[in-house]
Structure formats: structure tokens, C-alpha cells
Amino acid sequence: STRESALLESVPTGLLIDGVWRDASAGDTFAVIDPATGRELARVADATPADAVAALDAAAAAADDWAATAPRVRGEILRRAFDLATEHREDLALLMTVEMGKSLAEARGEVTYGAEFLRWFSEEAVRISGRYGTNPEGTGTTIVSHRPVGPCLLITPWNFPLAMATRKIAPALAAGCTVVLKPAELTPLTSLYFAALLIEAGVPAGVVNVVTTTDSSGVASAVMADDRLRKVSFTGSTPVGKILLKQAADNVLRTSMELGGNAPFLVFDDADVDAAVAGAMLAKFRNIGEACTAANRFFVQRGVADEFAEKLTAKVRELAVGRGTDEGVSIGPLINDAAVAKNAELVDDAVSRGAAVATGGAAVDGPGTFFQPTVLTGITPGTRLLREEIFGPVAAISTFETEEEGVRLANDTEFGLVSYAFTRDLARGHRLITSLRSGMLGLNTGVVSNASAPFGGVKSSGLGREGGAEGIHEYLDTTYTLLPAS
Ligand code: ADP
Questions:
Q1: Which residues pair with 43 in a beta bridge?
Q2: Which family does the record assign (predicted)?
């Protein structure tokens, strides 16, 4: 549409280094593709490792001034960024829909959620406090305070192009850190547009730098090998997170790692089944299933298993598949061909091991990389999707008999990001808070993400927390001073 082309024309396509938009030093660009059509949307600068080090130069040069900027001033810049993101909500939403695929309604929801990190951390910037006290021996006074860790490398994925950027940039800036953002190469446009809003909000040159690149490993390695960098915050797959943790060891960098998930979704006999189905629709089909918080394994207690599967299947059959800009669409395309192939492979594996297809089950013919919203029942032990993240619109249901068995199945994974459980028994709900081994629990709800809460996982799902009162501490070092008693 003309609105779409005008918007695409307005997105900066260079690297943001030291407050200036530049071409990549080698002059290279790469294409951004609309997964719903396969068409090229724009071309953006393809940074070399040397460009990324230039971005770190800018972040390092700006670090002291930004750290010394009054917390209220930092907070007010973030607050203006919140206002601007809210004001430009339709543009940000449309960009996410065309470069990532999610429906416009969900993209608007992401603007609300993503912008909230800017508002939340604008408020946290002025609440960084320490401690003052007498030591146990009575011989000295201890003063505990915090200071920004220094320049940070922020690496974000393609599935939430705005929120994953704001969730890192906002706490970093609130804490007084400068950053180099490396957005996912599949969805750079949202970050570039948002970076322009940050400049408009008053973020000084060098405080936020953005390098888009197809050489993510070269760029990350070059920046992380430079000892001016003090922190890396990453959201993405567990294998890449492990590579970055190893690289971070060389300069003993602070790290935050939001990695893969394999969320269990438990429905007990005493659950409100309609509420569980509504929660399942969100936990599984929101964002086309392409979320690290997506329900990956449904475990339903025997007594309600048939009812849950039938009601879920009926709802899934109502989901409209199409380009996210089309009216009424809720399931857009998967991000690329590889994602479609992976979903197809996991469904075929499940079926070959005895699962039944209640609805969907296959890719949709192109153009565009679509996969049918799918419900599988009768998943058997050993099925690959019990171990692997599906990252697509495929709900896989197994049954269990007792709470103990349900919990054991839920915890039988190397991951531990989020669990979902539906029960009307308060005592059972209380037990699940301790028995489910994940960083987050949705108890009778299918969505847990909120800027005011600490988002993050245990085990192979990562390290550190984003959001909440905890979020800012990922970007602060703790220092302690001892004074002798006078
Ligand atoms: P996903 O499955 O979401 O694409 P990835 O972990 O591959 O997950 O990608 C998440 C982010 O990590 C993207 O910005 C991507 O460019 C970046 N990335 C991928 N490989 C590396 C690497 N070796 N070093 C640094 N960043 C990487």
C-alpha cells in the first residue's frame, strides 16, 4: 500500500554511530524480506567488524558523561522515548508486521508492551539506592553503592523486534550505561526506526549506537574482544548464548542471557477448562508460536483431556492465516523457510511416533512461509518436540494421571523459562510454585510478560532478569566502602 511504501521510505537504513547515520565502511547492504510475500522491503547497511568497533569507540567516549548525567535527566529522556514510541505506535506496529509477520493487532500489543519498558525504567532511573550501616563488630561503617557497568553490547532476536530492544536499552540507559545494539538481521527496520525516535527524545550522541549486519559472529567477536566493553546482554537461542558466554569469559564480562524455552502447560482435572483453552490460545498461538515463552508441551490430566483437546481444536480451526496486515488475520507467516521446514519435521516426527493430527499439520503453499495452525494429540515419549523448541503454531498434547506425574513431565527438560498451570485448587497452585522448575509461572494465565516483573529463566534458559526492580541491576556494579568508626 502507499502508506506502507511511505513508511518504508522514512526508515533510516544506515548504521547509527556517534549520533550520525553512516553507510557501512565497505559500502555493503543487505535485503530485508517480507515473510508473507517473499518480497524485498528495504536494504540496510551491512556493518563490518571494524564498523562495530567504531560504534564501541562512540559508546566508550560517551560513557563517562552519560554516567554523570543526572538520573532525573536520564529518566526524562526515557519518558520522552515512551511518549514518542506511543505516538508512533501505528508506524512501529506496521513495520513489525511487514518485516516479522505477526498480525497488526499483535504488533500494536507489542508497541504497548515494548514501550512500557521505557516508562518503567524512566521511573527506576531515579530509584537507584544503596545501603549505609555499622558492621557487626561495631568497628566500622559500610557504605554500599552502585555504578553503571560501562559500555554494553545488546544482541536481540527477530521475534519481538521492538520489545527485545527496549527491554535492554531502557534499563541500560536508566543505569547510566552506553550501548551498541545489534538487532537481528531478519528484522532490523523496527530497531532503526526506534533508534531515530531515541535521538528525537534527546539521547546524546554515542549513548545508543546501532549496527545492522549479516556478520553477527564477526561483529560480536570484535566488540567482545575489546576490553572497553563491560557487558553483553543477549536474547536468542541457547547454542548462540553458549558461544557468547564462552567469549565473555575472555574479558570477564557481565552477562545477561535470555535463551530458549520449552514451556510446559499443565491442565488439571479441577481446572476451568474454558479458561485453560483461552490461556492455551495465548500461550501457544500468540506471535505465531514464535516466542521463547510459547507453550511447547501440553500436559492434560486424564479427566479433562478429551474436553480440552476438542475445545482447543475448535478454537484453532477459527484462526485465520494470512499476511498480518489483512483484516481478521491472527496467524501470519513463520519467519523463513527454515522455520517452516522445522515445524513440518517436528510434526512428521510426532505423527510417525503415534500422534494424531486433530487439525492442521502441514505447511501452506507459497508465496510466503506459512504453516497451518496445528493441534496434535497422543504425543508419545521420545517425540522430538518434547525436547526441542517448536517455535511455531503447533500445539502438542499428552495426558497424565497424577499431580506428581504431571510435575515430573513438566520438569523433564534442560530448559526452565516459564511454566503454565491451570487449576482451581489453591493448595495445588501453591505447591506448583515450588515444584515447577522455571523462572516464571503463569498460574491460570497464558501470558506472564510485564515490564514490572523480572523476566528470565533457570537452567539452559539463561542467566539474569529483565524488567522489574531486578532489571536495572543487570547494568549496575555494586561497590562497597568501609570507614573506621570514629
Ligand atoms: P534465533 O533462533 O532467534 O534466530 P539466534 O540465536 O540465531 O536465534 O539469533 C539471535 C541473535 O543473535 C540475532 O541478532 C543473531 O544475529 C545473533 N547471532 C547469531 N549468531 C551469533 C553469534 N555467533 N554471535 C553473536 N550473535 C549471533
A1: 31
A2: Belongs to the aldehyde dehydrogenase family.
| Cα–Cα distance, 33 to 369 (Å, whole number) | 11
Nearest-CA residue for ligand 1 atom 21 is 217
Nearest to 148 by CA among 115, 181, 117, 125: 125
Please identify which residue in the block is written with the cell numbers 521463547: 292
Angle at 235 between CA 30 and CA 56, to 5 degrees: 65
Question: Cis link prior to 367 (omega < 30° from 0)?
Answer: yes
Residue identifier of the C-alpha nearest atom 22 of ligand 1: 217
466 is catalytic: no
ipTM for the complex shown: 0.98
Taking the centre of ligand 1 as the mean of its atom positions, its distance from the CA of residue 240, in whole angstroms, is 6
Give the residue among 36, 478, 1, 24 at the shortest CA–CA distance from 254: 478
Distance 300 CA to ligand 1 centre (A): 34
pLDDT in tens, 357-406: 999 999 999 899 999 999 999 999 999 999 999 999 999 999 999 999 99
* 247 CB near ligand 1 (under 6 Å): no
Q: Is 157 in the pocket of ligand 1 (CB under 6 A)?
A: yes
Q: How far apart are CA 366 and CA 355, in angstroms?
A: 26
Q: What average pLDDT does the chain have?
A: 98
Percent of the chain as helix, strand, coil, to the nearest 5: 45, 20, 35
Residue 153, classed as helix, strand or coil, is strand
Residues in the chain: 486
28 backbone φψ class: left, alpha, beta (φ>0; ψ -120 to 50): beta
Cα(405) to centroid of ligand 1, in Å?
Answer: 36
Cell numbers given for 70:
543526572
* CA–CA distance, 167 with 255 (Å, rounded to integer): 15
3-state secondary structure of 261: coil
Question: What would the mean pLDDT of 345-353 be, rounded to a whole number?
Answer: 98
Q: Per DSSP, what are the bridge partners of residue 232? A: 153, 255
Mean pLDDT of the region 62-83: 98
**pLDDT of 1 strictly over 90:** no
pTM for this structure? 0.98
Please identify which of the residues 116, 258, 403, 474 carries the catalytic annotation: 258
Whose Cα sits closest to atom 14 in ligand 1? 184
